[in-house]
């Protein structure tokens, strides 16, 4: 979806507001993917806003320096009192949110607005994505990490990752990428990034460290729904055949699951009696594993290739028992 002029202006403001990162007309044009004349129009609009736009006389580069304002000292003192009480009674999650509000009011540019939390840290809201999830156990640590990634995504800043791919040697590798989105898929948190014009997914739990390179990149179109279209779970479809699956569903609880499921594209109910569904999906390992787990509550009618794969897996599995 094309961005509005208002959104584009905000993107320019975000770029120029970065500390010690002024930008020239050419750099802004590359960053925004437009011509120099458009950048000049954006800058004229920002000047009229009185947002603190400045141009360095020697380098001719532009930056935004926030206009100084008086700190609300009374509010800050009140919030510090609240924070102290919360620490004394042991409610650290809420205390952390109050601290962010204090930092924000004190003019800490690195602080996130406490009213715009990425993760709900209320002690009565439990995030538990199962035994194989790395996400919920270290929630507070992940919150800090997520904020750093989101800042790089919003500012379109290139980053250098030190990453451990899922390989037997377990060696660290480095990738310079353009971060696009953070995606929590099933039980794993992924960084979606552009690597040499190819969309790649990096599990956050396998990112050992990362840093900004100091470079920026123009907007890269990305459609999350398209990435996981015709996918069952974690696996994307780039390496697997797409198949049409037709099956009868016998158990009522499973029929209910199919009626309420959020497959992309949606499951088609072909018949009510017997209850028959049609799916267009990639034949991935997690999809076949799920089918094996619900047998014999379903009868697979098509395709024959899927039926043969499952027969082979059942035969091999029986040898392990």
Written description of the protein model:
- Strand 5 and strand 6 form a beta hairpin.
- About 3% of the residues have low confidence.
- The strands form three sheets. A five-stranded antiparallel sheet has the order 6-5-4-3-7.
- Helix 2 packs across helix 3 and helix 4 packs antiparallel against helix 5.
- It is α+β, with helices and mostly antiparallel strands and 321 residues long.
- It folds into four domains: 60 residues, Arc Repressor Mutant, subunit A (Orthogonal Bundle), CATH 1.10.10; 35 residues, no CATH class; 87 residues, Roll (SH3 type barrels), CATH 2.30.30; 91 residues, Alpha-Beta Plaits.
- The protein has ten helices and eleven strands.
- It is 37% helix and 24% strand.
Protein traits:
321 residues, alpha+beta, SH3 type barrels, 5-stranded antiparallel sheet, 11 strands, globular
Q: What order do the helices and strands come in, and which of them pair?
A:
Layout: H1 5-16, H2 25-32, H3 36-49, E1 53-55, E2 62-64, H4 73-88, H5 92-105, H6 139-155, E3 157-163, E4 173-185, E5 188-195, E6 198-203, E7 207-216, H7 224-227, E8 242-249, H8 252-260, E9 268-272, E10 275-282, H9 285-294, E11 298-302, H10 304-318
Antiparallel strand pairs: 1-2, 3-4, 3-7, 4-5, 5-6, 8-10, 8-11, 9-10
């Amino acid at each position: 979806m094309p961005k509005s002029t208002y959104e584009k202006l905000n993107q320019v403001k975000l770029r120029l507001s970065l500390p010690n990162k002024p930008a020239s007309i050419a750099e802004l044009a590359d960053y925004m993917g437009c011509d120099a004349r458009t950048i000049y129009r954006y800058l004229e609009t920002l000047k009229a806003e009185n947002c603190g736009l400045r141009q360095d006389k020697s380098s001719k580069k532009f930056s935004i320096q926030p206009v100084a304002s008086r700190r609300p000292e009374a509010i800050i003192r009140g919030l510090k009192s609240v924070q102290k009480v919360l620490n004394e009674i042991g409610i650290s999650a809420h205390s952390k949110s109050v601290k962010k509000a204090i930092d924000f009011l004190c003019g800490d540019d690195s602080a996130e607005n406490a009213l715009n939390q990425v993760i709900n840290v209320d002690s009565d809201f439990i995030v538990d994505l199962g035994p194989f999830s790395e996400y919920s156990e270290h929630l507070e640590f992940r919150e800090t990490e997520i904020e750093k990634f989101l800042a790089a995504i919003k500012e379109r800043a290139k980053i250098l990752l030190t990453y451990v791919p899922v390989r037997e040697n377990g060696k660290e590798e480095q990738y310079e990428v353009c971060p696009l989105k953070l995606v929590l898929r099933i039980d794993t948190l992924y960084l979606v990034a552009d690597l040499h014009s190819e969309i790649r997914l990096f599990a956050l739990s396998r990112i050992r460290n990362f840093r900004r390179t100091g470079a920026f990149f123009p907007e890269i179109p990305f459609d999350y729904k398209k990435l996981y279209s015709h996918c069952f779970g974690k696996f994307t479809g780039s390496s697997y055949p797409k198949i049409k699956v037709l099956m009868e569903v016998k158990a009522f609880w499973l029929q209910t699951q199919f009626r309420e499921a959020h497959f992309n594209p949606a499951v088609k109910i072909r018949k009510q009696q017997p209850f028959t569904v049609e799916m267009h999906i990639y034949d991935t390992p997690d999809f076949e594993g799920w089918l094996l787990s619900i047998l014999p509550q379903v009868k697979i009618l098509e395709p024959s290739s899927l039926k043969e794969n499952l027969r082979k897996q059942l035969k091999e599995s029986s040898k392990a028992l």
